[in-house]
Amino acid sequence: MPNPTAAMLVIGDEILSGRTRDANMHHLAGRLTEAGIDLREVRIVSDDAPAITAAVKALSDGFDHVFTSGGIGPTHDDITADCIAAAFDDTIDVRDDARALLQAHYDRSGQELNAARLRMARIPSKATLIDNPVSTAPGFSIGNVHVMAGVPAVFQAMVASILPTLTGGAPLVSRSLAVMRGEGDIAGPLGAFAVDHPDLSVGSYPFQKDGIYGANLVIRGADQARVDAAFATLEQLFA
Amino acid sequence: MPNPTAAMLVIGDEILSGRTRDANMHHLAGRLTEAGIDLREVRIVSDDAPAITAAVKALSDGFDHVFTSGGIGPTHDDITADCIAAAFDDTIDVRDDARALLQAHYDRSGQELNAARLRMARIPSKATLIDNPVSTAPGFSIGNVHVMAGVPAVFQAMVASILPTLTGGAPLVSRSLAVMRGEGDIAGPLGAFAVDHPDLSVGSYPFQKDGIYGANLVIRGADQARVDAAFATLEQLFA
């Protein structure tokens, strides 16, 4: 059985404006690979309601799981929860279960559960909450979409909460070989090698370092022994 | 007149598998902001022909400019050029102008223009070439789509080649203020501030560092004086 597929939707202007580099995508990609879930597509959209809603619909239809990051905080530009509700034709309001979590958290810390913070208890009616052990305000899952915070420490904690509840596949095994030759030199035999190993994914990722061209050759597959055997062949090929 | 819009399409399995972090997205985002072109969406797809073709079509229809990175090298997994040709209903074959560039390059370096390297001269018939001063093999533009290499040094050189040929808008000016308070404390006054400055984009990007919650507040706009005046107000608000 093929592994389940996934997409990620990153919501917010920070990466698109070049202000910050992504961290959550890289984290999720690694965790999904370990879990045997194939991350097939990532989209990054700005804090724009029609763009968010359209992307959620398209990715929810196209993949087994969708993971979102960003836009579920208390400020005016946090519109993700409302967009997700719209994408699923669901209603959204402050929910008692989420409010109780926040009330207990702010009671403990002696802070006020003000109107802004209460926005973080706005959850679509059909969603189930995702635990947030870092800062309490929950994420949520609705249909096949898992909605998480953008702050990396919180995002990572939510991924750790949700991933064990999903059915993964066989973790993909990969091995990589750095070859200090230009891709043009190795493309012929590498292409033949890929044809000879149709059950494996064979990728070539070129790089240039200090004026030297090279490529990382990566073999991926579900079976460790097959990957190891192919890797030995690859090493001989480009020794 | 509003600034032109843009999307980026990153092609390849490296980022999706968690092996590498993106570098090209971050570079392009910064250059486009300087050029007054609004990067609205980024998609990352794997080396899969239907996924690439569908994404190119959707982004070409939705935005003024599309920039792609990756998949135009000589190896078997480099399928971008063929997918772009398909997306534009164009034919593709080795083109004389591209072949001449490569022939001269490999003649100079004493290497053979073998079949693999010649694949890099496969260019859609209606495309114009993008100069590659780093490693010669050209990118190309067709319609509103600009197709560039994935190796960061080459990608950056191609961006530098193509950007001056595009009509940009007023460069966006931005100023940011780090506030060491949780978003829940600042969301109320910040929301009112955003309503008072409808011509500016006001974003709040929360972070957590050493257990302290804070937020970077970012004001963006086309007019430096307006942004500076608003920034002074923001500083007073959260002093």
Major beta sheet, strand line-up of chain A: 2-1-3-8-7-6
User: Which percent range fits the helix content of chain A?
Assistant: 25-40%
Instruction: Flag low-confidence runs of chain A.
Output: none
Rounded to an integer, what's the Rg of chain A over CA atoms?
A: 22 Å
Whole-number mean pLDDT of chain A:
93
Structure notes:
The structure is a homodimer of 239-residue chains. Chain A folds into 2 domains: 161 residues, MoaB/Mog-like domain (Molybdenum Cofactor Biosythetic Enzyme, Chain A, 3-Layer(aba) Sandwich); 65 residues, Alpha-Beta Plaits (2-Layer Sandwich), CATH 3.30.70. Helix content of chain A is 40%, strand content 26%. Chain A is built from 9 helices and 11 strands. In chain A, the strands form 3 sheets. Chain A has a 6-stranded mixed sheet, with helices on both faces. A 3-stranded antiparallel sheet of chain A has the order 9-11-10. The two termini of chain A are 35 Å apart. The interface between A and B is large, with 74 and 74 residues.
Brief overview, please?
The first copy, chain A, has helices spanning 13-16, 24-35, 49-62, 80-87, 96-109, 115-118, 152-162, 183-196, 224-237; strands at 5-11, 38-45, 65-69, 92-94, 122-124, 128-130, 139-142, 145-148, 173-179, 201-209, 212-221. Chain A is of the alpha/beta class and 239 residues long.
Q: Key features?
A:
homodimer; 239 residues; alpha/beta; Molybdenum Cofactor Biosythetic Enzyme, Chain A; Alpha-Beta Plaits; 2 domains; 9 helices; 11 strands; 26% strand
